[in-house]
Write a structure and sequence with these properties.
Shape: elongated
Number of strands: 10
Number of domains: 2
Strand content: 25-35%
Order of helices and strands: EHHHEEEEEEEEHHE
Distance between the termini: 28 Å
Radius of gyration: 23 Å
Number of helices: 5
Oligomer: single chain
Largest sheet: 8 strands, antiparallel
Length: 206
């Protein structure tokens, strides 16, 4: 894999039935004794609350944080962008998607970890995604960008290597009906003339 173009996938895994059952059991273990201790004024039973929360944190850790709203950055699943393909890596095995075989491509590359979103907060780097249809099936992959250097490198790679080829056979839908008639060089001039951000948040292809 090319490290410069390889990024961890972001996946929020769903808990299994057993994990759901254990989580309900743990919640009952916390709140039933605590409620009993409150109503009977027996402080010993109230200790279930701090011990229970510690148990929930531990349980959540060992179930890969399935019981939080966090979108988890994967350690063994990656997406890799190359000139000709999108590669999905999992446990050293990969699935390759040739750009020319994809339809309805949507690319959203807007953030690295710590990038300012507005005055109230920052991005976490997990907001980036690519989606596409392959053989009638839609795939969507969220991925994590850690630094501004990685972010800028990926943008430049898309702009200079990947997009020029895609513009030859695909049609951008979200900016102007004029754009599909332009080749890549003319497109950049068009964007500059009308002050269109060359790093558009959403780039759509048919």
């Amino acid at each position: 894999m090319n490290d410069k173009l390889t990024f961890p996938l972001v996946i929020h895994a769903n808990p299994t039935k057993l994990e759901r059952f254990l989580s309900l059991f743990l919640i009952a273990f916390i709140f039933l004794p605590f409620s009993y201790g409150v109503f009977t004024a027996q402080g010993f039973y109230c200790l279930s609350l701090p011990f229970g929360f510690f148990g929930m944190l531990t349980f959540n850790h060992f179930t890969d944080y399935k019981f939080t709203t966090l979108k988890i950055i994967q350690k063994n699943k990656f997406i890799c962008f190359t000139e000709n393909e999108v590669e999905i890596w999992e446990d050293e095995e990969s699935v390759l998607y040739n750009w020319n075989d994809l339809e309805n491509i949507k690319i959203n590359i807007i953030a690295f970890n710590g990038k300012w979103k507005d005055e109230d907060g920052k991005y976490h780097g997990i907001e980036n995604y690519i989606s596409f249809a392959f053989q009638g099936v839609t795939h969507k992959y969220l991925f994590y960008i850690d630094t501004s250097k990685e972010f800028n490198f990926l943008w430049d790679y898309f702009e200079k290597i990947i997009l020029p080829k895609l513009y030859l056979s695909k049609r951008i839908k979200d900016e102007s009906i004029i754009i599909p008639l332009l080749d890549y060089t003319e497109l950049q001039k068009f964007k500059a003339k009308y002050n269109i951000n060359r790093y558009t948040d959403f780039i759509y292809f048919n």
